[in-house]
Amino acid sequence: MIALFLATALYVGNNACARCHADIFKTYRDTPMARSSGIISGGLTPGAFQHAASAVSYRIDRSGSVQITTNRQSAEKKLAYFIGSGSAGQSYLWSRNGFLFQAPVTWYAQQGRWDVSPGYEADRVSRWSRPIAFDCLNCHSSQVRLAAGFSNRYAEPPFAQPGVGCERCHGPGSEHVEGRGKMVNPAKLDATRRDSVCAQCHMSGEARETRARKRFEDYRPGALLTDYAAYFVYDGAPALKATSYVEKLAASRCKIASGARMWCGTCHDPHRVPPPAERVSWYRTACLGCHQTAECKRGNDCVSCHMPKGHVEGGGHGVLTDHSIPRIPSHMAAESRDLWKLRPFSPADAGSRELGLAYAEVAARTGDVRQVQEALRLLPDAGQDAQVELRLADLYQRTGNPQRAAVLYRSVLQKDPGSEAALVNLGNLYAAANDFDNAILLWREAIRREPCQPEAARNLQTAYRARKQDRELTDLLANQADCVIE
Ligand code: HEC
Ligand code: HEC
Ligand code: HEC
Ligand code: HEC
Ligand code: HEC
Ligand code: HEC
Ligand code: HEC
Question: DSSP labels for 195-228?
Fold first, then answer.
């Protein structure tokens, strides 16, 4: 159907490439990227643990069935999909009629054991309610199938191709497999387009803001990622964080001094991971592509000293390689400064709409008033720009201007009736003005769009109790029992 309307090629999946590129197909199949997500069909390592803070016990079997035992009850959940190849760890998703949520259990491969998921350490209950947003699947799988108007409801399975598909780096292949079109070869692109291919998944920054009238997922290999989104980092040494390879490498002397010549492909073959026995010489060869052995005679394992592994900020139990290639190995360690100022990763984004959005996004996390002020200074009049409207509404709400916030939330909902943030917050504003009928309508809609939406659920509970709406309260509590097990 779609092919009738679009002249462009469509996605065909990895298997379609095997016939003509058998060697690449075979080596690629075993890489962590290719195995970065999938449907669970047995094969998990069984295990059990008790989580101290919540006193909840978990027992996981091979098929992905989880027995949960609390002080008050036992329950069972079924893990449907995995995320992460398991080099360091593996996360799991469960499906509630197509709505996907992260499980509180994670497999930590480096320690060879199950434990609570990163960010769940301090929980007092068993939480099955963390929604899986599009971005998560878009980095770990390919051709994600999100239902329109929802933020975490998907077709089953939620992806057409598990893992990172060939076409994520080479573009859709339907014409090429029929001998009619050429694929994109990243190595033959100009440096910015080439680097965009890896950056679509290996860069996060402190904030990523989509350009006006663009959708991030419309980026295709060969295009410029910066036409779709702008990235912002804190002005100061970047911490070692997950998905920060592009930023870290950009901060290295090697990259600064050699420019476009150096990129991810200088040291990595995306189709193949060097086996352990080749690892030292593989990376040494990459270094010696630019350096002379005479420059440093401290040993052959260059990366053990210059690209040390370290624990990731906020990353649970993971350790990742420092891509800033420091001269003195400990140099990048303990940096704790007052980081609040954002720097655009690409200088063209100084003073932009996107910088304003980025300040508003980080301010929503940190509450830092300096960031709030920068956001208000930079954000243009919203016009018909729903992204800006949503951020401005939040800022007005924070700075004591509920009327202006309400106008903007209503305008967002006209364009995007599924906007959870607008539904919940506008509901809160109605409630603050004692208009509970309208507040309840909006909170109910938020729950319909995202069945575990915590703030809407909490507010509805309070409202139903106060208004003695017992039947609605019972239904709501039954709904919530799937989100949190106490
Ligand atoms: C029918 C055989 C056939 C199939 C199927 C096929 N290819 Fe190719 N591919 C070729 C041939 C022949 C070339 C060399 C000529 C060219 O560049 O088109 C090639 C070249 C390429 C190149 C290099 C392009 C360049 O400019 O350096 C890439 C990348 C590529 N293919 C990726 C894929 C992917 C990904 C798939 C699966 C979606 C795929 N191919 C399926 C035959 C095939
Ligand atoms: C569609 C998203 C996506 C794209 C595009 C992508 N990566 Fe990855 N990459 C990932 C994910 C996700 C992982 C983690 C895999 C895991 O262990 O689950 C990863 C892991 C890796 C790893 C470590 C393990 C391995 O597979 O070797 C390297 C190296 C890597 N990527 C290099 C690259 C390079 C180079 C490019 C660009 C040519 C690139 N990636 C493009 C998502 C992506
Ligand atoms: C911007 C792209 C991106 C997003 C969004 C993202 N990841 Fe990742 N993830 C990666 C990459 C790339 C890696 C490899 C290591 C790294 O870069 O930190 C990775 C590593 C992992 C790992 C460890 C994999 C291994 O083999 O050890 C797990 C587990 C994981 N991610 C789960 C998730 C989950 C769950 C979400 C969403 C809730 C998510 N990630 C969101 C790109 C992403
Ligand atoms: C993570 C990104 C990524 C993925 C996934 C990926 N490739 Fe590639 N591919 C590249 C890059 C980068 C190059 C250029 C390598 C170079 O020359 O330095 C390349 C080159 C190629 C080439 C041409 C050069 C050659 O070595 O023959 C073919 C053919 C190809 N890829 C096929 C595939 C197929 C088939 C798959 C899936 C089974 C695949 N690629 C998956 C990034 C990727
Ligand atoms: C694409 C070329 C290139 C590659 C590949 C490369 N470097 Fe460099 N590196 C450079 C350049 C250029 C400089 C700057 C030299 C100068 O300032 O005189 C540099 C500087 C350095 C420095 C000094 C850093 C400082 O802060 O003074 C170290 C250490 C270093 N490289 C180690 C490595 C290691 C280890 C590898 C392999 C993992 C590597 N480089 C790969 C080009 C490269
Ligand atoms: C100068 C060489 C070099 C360059 C350039 C480079 N890497 Fe790496 N990368 C390494 C080394 C060394 C490791 C550690 C491999 C190991 O421990 O086996 C690594 C590991 C990784 C891993 C696996 C997880 C981890 O942290 O150990 C990912 C993902 C990755 N690199 C992504 C990238 C991306 C994306 C780029 C481009 C922005 C890039 N790398 C550029 C040398 C490099
Ligand atoms: C045992 C740890 C270790 C190993 C292994 C090691 N280096 Fe170094 N390297 C250092 C230290 C420490 C310095 C800083 C020396 C100083 O500032 O006096 C350094 C300095 C450098 C410099 C900067 C030299 C200059 O004069 O500016 C480069 C380039 C470099 N190393 C590259 C490499 C390469 C390439 C390899 C692998 C062939 C390697 N190193 C292996 C520890 C190591």
Answer: HHHHHHHHB--SEEEEPTT--GGG--BTB-GGGT
